[in-house]
Amino acid sequence: TAFWSKMLPILPVVVHAWLAAPQLGTYAAPRGCVRSRATPKMCAELPASAVEPRGPQPVPPTSYDEAEARGFELYQTGEFERAIRMFELAQTLPGAGSDYVRQKQSGMIGSATAPPNPRGLKLERFATAEQKLIAQYNIACCYSGMGDGRRALELLETYLQQVRNPLDQLNEMIVDADFASIRTELLQLRGQLKEQEKPPGLFGLPFGNPMRDLAAQVGVEWKD
User: Fold this and answer.
1) Are the C-beta atoms of residues 139 and 179 closer than 8 Å to each other?
2) Is pTM, for the whole model, over 0.85?
3) CB 98 within 8 A of CB 124
4) H helices then E strands: how many in the chain?
5) What's the pLDDT tens digit per position in 159-197?
6) Which of 140, 163, 173, 206 is most deeply packed, by most CB within 10 A?
7) Best CA proximity match to 71, nearest among 52, 44, 90, 91
8) CA–CA separation, 192 vs 204, rounded Å?
9) Is residue 158 a contact partner of residue 140, using CB atoms and an 8 Å limit?
10) How far is Cα 195 from Cα 72, in angstroms, rounded to an integer?
11) What pairing do the DSSP bridges indicate for beta strands 43-45 and 33-35?
12) From CA 128, how far away is CA 138, in angstroms rounded?
């Protein structure tokens, strides 16, 4: 009785503390921890780099020049696949080309930032054909760096079909270090181009002009 007479005054406090305490067998993951799938009751501390927010992500390029520069950076670091995507994106962004297109609502009223435009025209910029060709050349460089010589050669053949003086362009490709892995194929391609660029003979025949050869033998100047 003496024991209970001493416990009765503090019994409500003990009961309240017991009710407020977490029940045995329950688990609450503390903040800053994640549950492991293998051991769901274990708590793995996250590294500071994973918990803290990262720095600002790079802003997507908004022009051909920005995408091209980003592609060069990726190429130099050996990230060829990402560089290819960047050069492909460059062809769809505003470049050196420009044109005026008519807007749907003509006669728009000017504002503090936009002057009056009574004709409803809008200036649009786009990548020129030359810029797109350069991007294709750069993509071929990436495929060559990845070891995909077949795809690189296909792109270069298409490139040569769209440029002036393809033989001169091909000579530059042969000495380009980016295409060292397909130099043999480029030399073969140059031989084919030389055959195609040979002037036709008399009446368009594949052999030379026999009359010119005869005139040379008798010492007479021949004029075409």
Assistant:
1) no
2) no
3) yes
4) 10, 4
5) 999 998 999 999 999 999 999 999 999 999 999 988 887
6) 140
7) 90
8) 19
9) no
10) 35
11) antiparallel
12) 15
